[in-house]
Design goal:
Number of helices: 9
Strand order of the largest sheet: 1-2-3-4
Order of helices and strands: HHHEHEHHEEHHH
Helix content: 55-70%
Number of strands: 4
Strand content: 5-15%
Low-confidence stretches: 44-49, 209-222
CATH topology of the largest domain: Diaminopimelate Epimerase, Chain A, domain 1
Radius of gyration: 30 Å
Distance between the termini: 37 Å
Mean pLDDT: 80
C-alpha cells in the first residue's frame, strides 16, 4: 500500500507534465515564439508593396477648390507645399487661371500617366466651361513619369512646345538630378505662374553640359537593395529561429 501511495503522486505529476503546454513549462520557448511571430509580422510589412493609385483613390476636387497640391507620395516638404499653395492661390485670384499639382506613389496596374491625367482632368472638371482655365500636372514618383493637361483658354498661352518643355525639362531635370521633387514642383510653379500672369517665360532649369555616367547606384536603387537585404535577413531569421527552438526543445 505504501508503494501504491508513493506511485500515485508520481503518476499525477507525469500526467500533468504531459498535458501542460510546452510554452508554460519553458518561459524561454514562449519568448522565442513571440519573437518569431514579430519577425513574421515585420516581413509582411517589408514585402507589402506601396499602394497603387487610380483616379478614384484621389480626392474629389473641382474648379474653385481651395486645394492646389495633392501629395499622396509625400515627397513635398510642408514648407514648400505652403509656398506652392500660396503662389497658386494668388495666381487664381489675380488671373482666374487655376493650376493643381498631384504626386502619387505608383500607378494602378494597366494605368498610364496619360490615362490617369485624362481621367482625373475629366473627373475634376467634367464640363468644357470648368476645364477652360485649368492646368493639371501629375507626377508618378515610382517611374518619375509626368503628364500635363490644359484647358482651352490655357493652350494658347501654355502651348504644346512649352508644355513639353515643362514635362521634359522643368520637372524631369531636377528629378534626374537626385530625385529633387521639391525643386521640380517649385520651378514648375514659378514658370507656370509667370506665363499665366502674362510675364516672360523664365524657361527650364539649366541642365549640366557635361554628363559623366556615374558608377554609383542611385538613391532609388540603394533603397531597393536595402529593402531586399532586409527581407532576406528576416526570412533567414524566421526560418532559423523556429528550427533552433525545435532542436533546443527536443534536447
Amino acid at each position: 500500500m505504501v508503494q501504491n501511495s508513493e506511485l500515485i503522486p508520481n503518476r499525477h505529476r507525469t500526467m500533468k507534465q504531459v498535458f501542460t503546454p510546452p510554452y508554460r513549462q519553458y518561459p524561454r520557448l514562449k519568448l522565442l515564439i513571440g519573437l518569431m511571430l514579430s519577425l513574421i509580422a515585420a516581413i509582411a510589412v517589408f514585402i507589402t508593396p506601396a499602394a497603387a493609385t487610380g483616379v478614384y483613390d484621389l480626392p474629389q476636387l473641382n474648379a474653385g477648390s481651395s486645394t492646389w497640391v495633392v501629395d499622396q507620395a509625400e515627397v513635398i516638404s510642408l514648407a514648400n507645399e505652403n509656398k506652392l499653395n500660396n503662389s497658386l492661390k494668388s495666381l487664381a485670384k489675380n488671373t482666374g487661371n487655376e493650376v493643381r499639382f498631384v504626386a502619387i506613389r505608383r500607378l494602378n496596374y494597366g494605368e498610364t500617366i496619360d490615362s490617369l491625367a485624362d481621367s482625373l482632368f475629366s473627373k475634376w472638371y467634367p464640363t468644357p466651361e470648368e476645364q477652360t482655365n485649368q492646368t493639371l500636372l501629375i507626377v508618378d514618383t515610382l517611374t518619375n513619369s509626368t503628364a500635363i493637361r490644359r484647358g482651352e483658354a490655357v493652350k494658347p498661352v501654355v502651348n504644346d512646345e512649352v508644355a513639353d518643355s515643362i514635362v521634359n525639362e522643368s520637372v524631369a531635370i531636377p528629378l534626374r538630378d537626385g530625385g529633387q521633387y521639391n525643386r521640380a514642383f517649385l520651378i514648375t510653379s514659378d514658370r507656370l505662374v509667370a506665363i499665366l500672369s502674362g510675364k516672360p517665360d523664365p524657361g527650364p532649369p539649366a541642365a549640366q553640359e557635361i554628363n559623366i555616367e556615374s558608377t554609383f547606384t542611385s538613391a532609388e536603387e540603394t533603397d531597393d537593395q536595402s529593402a531586399t537585404v532586409w527581407v532576406v535577413v528576416l526570412l533567414v531569421l524566421a526560418t532559423a529561429i523556429p528550427m533552433a527552438t525545435y532542436f533546443w526543445y527536443v534536447r
